[in-house]
Amino acid sequence: MSETRTVTQSVNKQQGEPILKVRNLKKYFNITKGIVFKKTVGVVKAVDDVSFDLYPGESLGLVGESGCGKTTTARTILRLEEPTAGEAYFQGDDIFAMSKSELRDLRGEITVIFQDPYASLNPRMTVGDIIAEPWSIHGGVPRKNRKNRTQELLEVVGLNPNNVSRYPHQFSGGQRQRIGIARALAVDPKTIICDEPVSALDVSVQAQVVNLLKDIQKEFGVSYLFIAHDLAVVRHIVDRVAVMYLGKIVETGDEFDVYDHAGHPYTEALLSAVPVPDPVGREGRKRIMLEGDVPSPTNPPSGCHFRTRCWKAQPKCAEEEPALIERGHGHPVACHFPDYEFSRGAPSSTT
User: Fold this and answer.
1) Strand pairing of 248-254 and 240-245?
2) Bridge partners of residue 61, in order along the sequence
């Protein structure tokens, strides 16, 4: 994809106000000790000061290693987890100030496609009942019309409409995920949170599901918050990317900016792990091997959380936490020394 086409696409989709606005979101979990008299002995900072915007009809990729806080961010936005601090607005309405009835309405506007297509479908319900269940909660389709509408949704996701009476165990993993997508579309949502929707599927099926999601977005105009750890998959569907590390966003920008002009060393390390047909890859790309383990979110390093694994770390990195701002690379980076030309020549070993 050319730089011109990517930037133009992003500008077109970002006209107007964001449909979802998140500011300084924090979600901490207390660590307690004791059975009867519980005492708080620590805090897990699962999400720590996350901010982003999602525009109508746009796809935003939230990427990073497992445990970096991606899913917790989504769950907190939906109030499945109560926030520790921060703000979240959907179409201008304060999500964290909503009553139970308002939250029920919100979950008809923001739906979810879950990671595990085996665990997310009730094995005792037919496909037709699974897809129709949201209407029992949110309304929208009269009972007499539900079978026809269910069959229409099955056709939209590429399944036989006559399968409404079958059960989940009679379908493959990819087919089950299509059923989950049909359920998410049932209430005509404005935004869909895709929580690792293809990570549990075979590689050949992943491409089919990603293409289906792209077709659905084109037809229905929904926005996607696409959570994933596989940057190769994310690139095929998102307009913008936000990279998370240890509860924080460390880099964000258009698809072209992040993938071809990454400024944060953590982003570079993730991109170097993406398989390419040529082991050397474009521009002589080499595998960047990060040293050490991911620090504990209960006791993150001072300053830059990534400094304990970063080959460019300097004393300033331990003393001052870098802000997520534009530093001369055309997109925000949370790094004191964001030089993508330098980071591409970082100490590494080929694989």
Assistant:
1) antiparallel
2) 226, 241
pTM for the model stands at 0.87
Joined tokens for residue 314: 């300097």
Span 185-201, average pLDDT: 93
The token duo for 32 is 């307690």
Instruction: Work out the angle at residue 141's Cα, subtended by the Cα atoms of residues 137 and 145, and round it to the nearest 5 degrees.
Output: 130
Domain coordinates in residue numbering, the chain? 45-249
| 82, burial (CB in 10 Å: exposed 0-12, middle 13-18, buried 19+) | exposed
Residue 244 pLDDT more than 80?
A: yes
For the chain, give the mean pLDDT: 87
CA atoms within 13 A on the CB side of 11: 6
Q: The domain 45-249: what is its CATH number?
A: 3.40.50.300
Give CA angle at 284 (281, 285), nearest 5°.
65
Identify the pLDDT of residue 1: 36
Distance between CA atoms of residues 34 and 39, nearest Å: 6
| Three-state DSSP class for residue 328 | coil
C-beta of residue 191 within 8 angstroms of C-beta of residue 220:
no
User: What phi, psi does 27 have (nearest 5°)?
Assistant: -140, 110
CA distances from residue 148 to 141, 144, 152, 177 in whole angstroms, order as listed: 10, 9, 6, 21
Cβ neighbors of 207 (< 8 A, separation 6 or more) are 236
